[in-house]
Amino acid sequence: MADPKPNGPRQSNGKKPVAPAGEAADRRPGDGKSLVTTQRGVQKKGTDDEIKKWIKAVQGGKEAATRSRQELVSTDLLQTEGDILDAIAADTGMAKVVLSQVNFTPELIAQVPAEVVRKYNVIPVDYNDREIWLAISDPHNIQALDDLSHVLGRKVHGRVAREDDIERAIRAYYSKDEYRQLYDKLAESDDPGSLDQRYDELELGTEAAAEINQPPVVKYVDLIFKQAVHERASDIHIEPTRVGVTIRFRIDGVLHEVPSPPRKWQNAIISRLKVLSGMDLAEKRVPLDGRIRLNMPEKKLDLRVSSLPTIFGESIVMRLLDQSSVMMGLEDVGFLPSTVKTFKKLIREPNGVILMTGPTGSGKTTTLYAALGVLNTPENKLVTLEDPVEYQIPGINQVQINHEIGLDFAYGLRSLLRQSPDIILVGEIRDLETAENAIRAALTGHLVFSTLHTNDAPSSTIRLIDMGVKPYLVASSLQAAIAQRLVRRICGACKEPYAFDPEVVRDLGYEAELEEGNLELFHGAGCERCSQSGYRGRTAIHEIMVMDSDLRRRVIRSEPASRLKKAAVAKGMLTLRDDGWTKAKLGITTPEEVLRITAAD
Q1: Cα angle at 587 between 583 and 592, to 5 degrees?
Q2: How far apart are CA 526 and CA 494, in angstroms?
Q3: What's the rounded Cα separation, in Å, for the pair 403 and 408?
Q4: What's the gap between Cα 5 and its chain centre?
Q5: Residue 64: enclosing H or E segment and its boundaries?
Q6: What pLDDT digit, counting tens, does each position of 51-82 carry?
Q7: pLDDT digits (tens, 9 = 90+) for 428-459
């Protein structure tokens, strides 16, 4: 990572040093052969001129570099970003560094102030008394290195690293310092300042948002938003307790506690959030709902805000809705090749009811939106009834439920049938009237998607019958029921085979495969990219019960869900646990995660 012969004593990071660029790449200018040889000795197809195309594009800005990089990868000239990094290192003579191999001690982090790190998008990787080595994504930016040398008062050496790795490291090792500085201000200050500023869109990451004279509480709330987005949180929980306030982020479905502010600012923070979300600041006795539009440099988000009065004060939960992440393709949702084929066939049916089942937060809406994305063509009219409309989709008529004026699911469904829709999405079937209207729409030639809260796919038929729907109506209208859960994905950066606990496999019910003796499973060892959790992102597991004549007869006889499930499995249905186990064997998730999410069949 450092120069081969650094001057003076150097900080030891406890990791094996990364070879300089000359050892990691084999450059042969002008011979028309591969510019890059990876550390595994695999030569790529790109010639000097072709690969230099991307290197030169770096100087043209991030957008140009991204376009050129995509061209290189799509034409198989370079296959990974690591190859591109090797190419840059070889072209510039600057050694590369893999940040996951750097030991970021507090002493190392303290060498460069947070504001300098963020301004230049660099991070220290090594140092001694007179020199410092910084990871940088653009080695052509010599001016930045000169400026940094002047600012830091040392000789600065650059090391090439991936831009997103640098940004992740900055978030991981400098955000806590930013929190601490704000805590100190909160603890010292007795005046929260003005909290009543209301925005149509809250701007974060701009100079206006970073004014130094902003009240500490305002800056702290802004920092909560920024940190939640950077950590990929789906929810922010702010909960009052007897001794203070607890703040937690839900990341990949699991809550993680973050440092909490001083107790004396609990009310000021809650008030700030209520003002931003348009809630009545004076009303603290009843639950309230609001919305915040968050405008960050990299994306725009909507936050659904809910307050709940507790014995220690108001609890606030905010759900982050990212418009750019909802419209996935069906292949991106998590279907196995066999199940995605079944699902695609189902959504092409001309009529009938297709139900998605699962608890809140299991990704039902995302999967249904993916289905609507396939069906959203000029030949089809799509209408949705949602409570609330979380994401706006071009080409679809979306109706917001409003209980205050009597516009509920049942009333809305009756009305939209006069709009001559081809495909209908009902956000949720909650009562008999909505269920009957949905079935009536299906029996009159419409394809109806909706959701139910049940534990598995077969239970959806029993749930409808328990609501009061006649069994023969359920049997004649239901095309399929799909149960869904979300499991955490193994982090791709630290994925490795491991010595799994055989008891977990037995608890899952697959001891027969254990006895075969050739079972290989994977986990994440933990790295900087996944914050040492071993997981990054989530994927869905599914249970698809397709109705046939046998299952319809069983529904008419009101057979219990257990018998329906047994009959469906006999016909080839994968249960949620089966689907999860398959994904564990494929190295997508872990057996522990499947056991955590699924119930015994």
Answers
A1: 70
A2: 6
A3: 6
A4: 43
A5: helix 62-74
A6: 555 455 544 444 444 444 445 444 444 444 55
A7: 999 999 999 999 999 999 999 999 999 999 99
Q: How many CB atoms lie within 10 A of CB 236?
A: 23
142-168 per-residue burial string, b: 16 or more CB within 10 A, e: under 16: eebbeebbeebebebbbbbbbbebbbb
Under 8 Å between Cβ of 477 and 442: yes
Say whether pLDDT at 100 is over 90.
Answer: no
| Tokens 């805590």, residue located | 183
| CATH topology assigned to domain 328-487+539-576 | Rossmann fold (3.40.50)
pTM over 0.85: no
Residue 512's φ and ψ, nearest 5 degrees, are -60, -40
User: 442-453 burial, b for 16+ CB within 10 Å, e for fewer?
Assistant: beeebbbbbbbb
Q: What number is the average pLDDT over the span 510-517?
A: 86
Write out the CATH class of domain 68-170: alpha beta
Could you give the maximum distance between any two Cα atoms of the chain, in Å? 85
Smallest Cα–Cα separation from 352: which of 446, 429, 463?
A: 446
Q: Do 541 and 485 contact (CB within 8 A), yes or no?
A: yes
Domain ranges of the chain: 68-170, 189-323, 328-487+539-576
Written as six digits, the tokens of 367 are 């999967």
Q: Does domain 189-323 have CATH number 3.30.450.90?
A: yes
Closest C-alpha among 541, 435, 531 to residue 484: 541
